[in-house]
Amino acid sequence: MGYSVGQVSAFAGVTVRTLHHYDKAGLLSPGDRSHAGYRLYGEADLVRLQQILFYRELGFSLDEIAEILEDPQASPVDRLRDRQRQLREEIARLQRLAEVAERAIEVRRTGVPMTPEERFEVFGEITFDLSYATEAELKWARSEGQREAMARAAAHTKEDWRRLMTEAAAWRAELLAAFDEGTPGDGERVMDLAEEHRLHISRWFTSCPPDMHRRIADDFVADPRAFALVVPPAQQRPGLAAYTRRAVHANADRQAGGHLDPKENR
């Protein structure tokens, strides 16, 4: 007994267009004919369709499915194991994204509402790239420091943000002056600025040991979006990100002896 394309579409839960596409691609062509000459799907075709739909549900491409079904040397088990690994990684990624969304919702609920004018007044040219923020949240999702930083940022009042950004702007002006004057990045003056930045992070967001500060500075060079949170693009100079990174690393080396500034815990 054979089944028409309409019948197969109805009980298999796929569109007629999809079946025609499979036929045109050479993946599934009806093997029987009715007395009137119409093409019909036989039992073997239905078994093959079940296999196709199974692999499609798992995310295999049509080309991959064709290879699995046509190549007798192909190992479906190996391919399924590989796909299982990919799916588990994707599930873990989506779970982390769900956690990011949950934190973002919480920040929105508890954060300080600002009009666009107030936001510009407080943050000026500093912009927060959502894509970078999301990637950073994923990267440090398991970090206690990241969780603390998010919680403290959410708790800041509008006045807190004004003070924070005023402090950051004053520091930035000193950094730019040192860079423009040709002060060595590993000189004492610029290392002191790096230490001020580290203490700024500890004061307003989360405890920032020297090794963490190194990783933050590494991102300044690796990702322009990270450095834009410190120095807006309009104020940047070629080599400034690397200069800042050098200062942070030099300061971290200086702090390695354990002589941390007592102001950090204030």
From TrEMBL:
Name the InterPro entries on file. Answer: DNA-bd_dom_put_sf, MerR-type_HTH_dom, MerR_fam, TipA-like_antibiotic-bd, TipAS_dom
Coiled-coil portions? 77-104
Q: In this protein, which residues make up the domain named HTH merR-type? A: 1-71
Under SMART domains, the record lists: HTH_MERR
Tell me if Transport is a UniProt keyword of this record: no
> What keywords tag this UniProt record?
Activator, Coiled coil, DNA-binding, Transcription, Transcription regulation
One Pfam family, please name it. Answer: MerR_1
Question: By its UniProt entry, which CDD domains does this protein fall under?
Answer: HTH_TipAL-Mta
State if Repressor is listed as a keyword: no
Protein's name in the database: MerR family transcriptional regulator
